[in-house]
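Supplementary Methods, section 5.1.

A reviewer requested that the exact input to the structure prediction be made available. We therefore reproduce it here, unchanged from the version used in the analyses.
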Amino acid sequence: MTPLETANRYNKISQIYQEELKDSDYGLRQIKQAISFTKNKNKALDVGCGVGGRIINELLSSNFDVKGIDVSSSMLDLAKKSHAEVSFENVDICTWESDEKFDLIVAWDSLFHLPLSEHKNVINKLSNLLEEDGILIYTFGDDIGEHISSWHEDTFYYSSIGINENMKTLLDNSFKIMHLELDQYPLKHVYTIVKKERNI
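The structure derived from this sequence is encoded token-by-token as follows.
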């Protein structure tokens, strides 16, 4: 399933998605932990920001200048209505290029929709988008491969290169592993927080 096909599925459920998460604090403990590791709180990027809400609000409350990107145009339309002070862009992270650098990058429950072949490329890209000492937090699956799951009367694509390959790719990009957790065990949901260190 291509990112555009995934976007079209989220376009159909954007209103429902916003309603379901409007009072949620899901992931905020982890985001606050990542913020606490961030040395410079200037610019933050939310990859797969969806309709916005709790994560962007947390970044704004920590005085970040926030940019949000998402492949779903309908999700972004709702995000723009909620966050007039945030810069949003309707792009596919696999092909998006930017000269901006960020102190914190969040990719909460978004990268696991990437085509399996794109995971390492996107991690490399996020590394290049970070300032030195910048922090990256993202989620992925404790599994290897790809599958389709049913949700909201539709099918959604998921993939993962697994814990070991994620860690290897991060280390290859001069990241220091700050935190790694299966935070919904026995579900295969993993998040990691890593710090961009100086290339030697």
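Residues 11 and 23 are 21 Å apart (CA to CA). These observations are discussed further in the main text.
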